[in-house]
C-alpha cells in the first residue's frame, strides 16, 4: 500500500484558499440576506381607496377591491317589467362576505362583525302591474345611501373594506367608491379613504 505524502505547506495553502472562498461566500450570503430583509420590512397599515362614481342600471358590476383581477363581489341591478319587480343584490365571491348596512360613515368593519356570504338583497320593489301602489323591502329602502361592509380572502387571510353606494332608486345604483385595509385582520371604518 502506497501512502501519499503531502507537505504541511500544501495543506496550509489549500486550507487557506478554502477558508478565503468560504469567507467570500459568507459575506455574499449576508449581503443577500440584508437585501431580503430590506424587502420584508415590517408591515404598515394602509388604506387603499378607489373612486369610481358609476351608476349600475339593469346590469352588474364586478367589484375587485384590491385590483388583483379577481372579482370579490358582484353588485347587480335587475328590473323585470313583466313581473313588476326591481331589485338590487350584492353577491360575495366564495369565502367573502358582506354587512348589508347601510352602514354610516365611521362604522367599524372588521373581525368583530358577522359577515354574510350569501347573496344579499339591498332593496326589492314590487308593484302590482298597472297600479300606482308599490312595496319596498330590504335595508336600503326609502332612498338610503351609505356603505356596504366587506370582508374578502387573499392568500388564506381575511381583509376588510367598504363600498359606498349613493341613493338607490329607479333601477339605478350609484357606486361612488371603495376601499380596503392592506393589513390582514385589521378593521377599517366605513368611509376611511387614507391613513394608517
Commentary on this structure:
The protein is of the alpha+beta class and 196 residues long. It folds into 2 domains: 41 residues; 143 residues, no CATH class. The protein contains 1 helix and 12 strands. It has a 5-stranded antiparallel sheet, with no helix packed on it. A 5-stranded antiparallel sheet has the order 2-3-4-7-8, with no helix packed on it. Strands 6-12 form a two-stranded antiparallel ribbon. A hairpin with a 4-residue loop joins strand 3 and strand 4. The termini are far apart. The N terminus is likely disordered.
List the helices and strands and how they pair.
Layout: H1 8-39, E1 47-57, E2 60-63, E3 73-80, E4 85-92, E5 97-103, E6 108-109, E7 120-126, E8 135-137, E9 146-154, E10 157-165, E11 172-181, E12 188-189
Antiparallel strand pairs: 1-11, 2-3, 3-4, 4-7, 5-9, 6-12, 7-8, 9-10, 10-11
Amino acid at each position: 500500500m502506497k501512502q501519499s505524502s503531502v507537505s504541511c505547506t500544501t495543506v496550509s495553502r489549500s486550507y487557506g484558499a478554502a477558508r478565503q472562498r468560504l469567507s467570500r461566500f459568507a459575506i455574499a450570503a449576508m449581503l443577500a440576506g440584508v437585501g431580503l430583509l430590506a424587502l420584508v420590512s415590517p408591515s404598515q397599515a394602509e388604506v387603499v381607496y378607489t373612486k369610481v362614481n358609476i351608476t349600475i342600471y339593469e346590469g352588474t358590476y364586478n367589484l375587485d377591491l384590491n385590483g388583483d383581477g379577481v372579482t370579490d363581489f358582484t353588485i347587480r341591478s335587475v328590473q323585470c317589467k313583466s313581473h313588476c319587480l326591481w331589485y338590487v343584490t350584492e353577491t360575495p365571491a366564495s369565502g367573502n362576505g358582506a354587512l348589508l348596512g347601510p352602514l354610516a360613515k365611521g362604522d367599524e368593519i372588521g373581525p368583530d362583525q358577522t359577515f354574510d356570504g350569501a347573496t344579499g338583497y339591498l332593496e326589492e320593489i314590487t308593484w302590482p302591474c298597472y297600479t300606482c301602489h308599490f312595496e319596498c323591502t330590504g335595508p336600503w329602502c326609502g332612498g338610503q345611501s351609505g356603505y356596504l361592509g366587506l370582508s374578502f380572502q387573499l392568500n388564506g387571510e381575511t381583509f376588510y373594506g367598504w363600498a359606498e353606494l349613493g341613493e338607490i332608486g329607479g333601477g339605478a345604483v350609484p357606486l361612488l367608491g371603495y376601499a380596503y385595509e392592506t393589513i390582514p385582520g385589521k378593521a377599517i371604518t366605513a368611509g376611511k379613504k387614507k391613513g394608517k
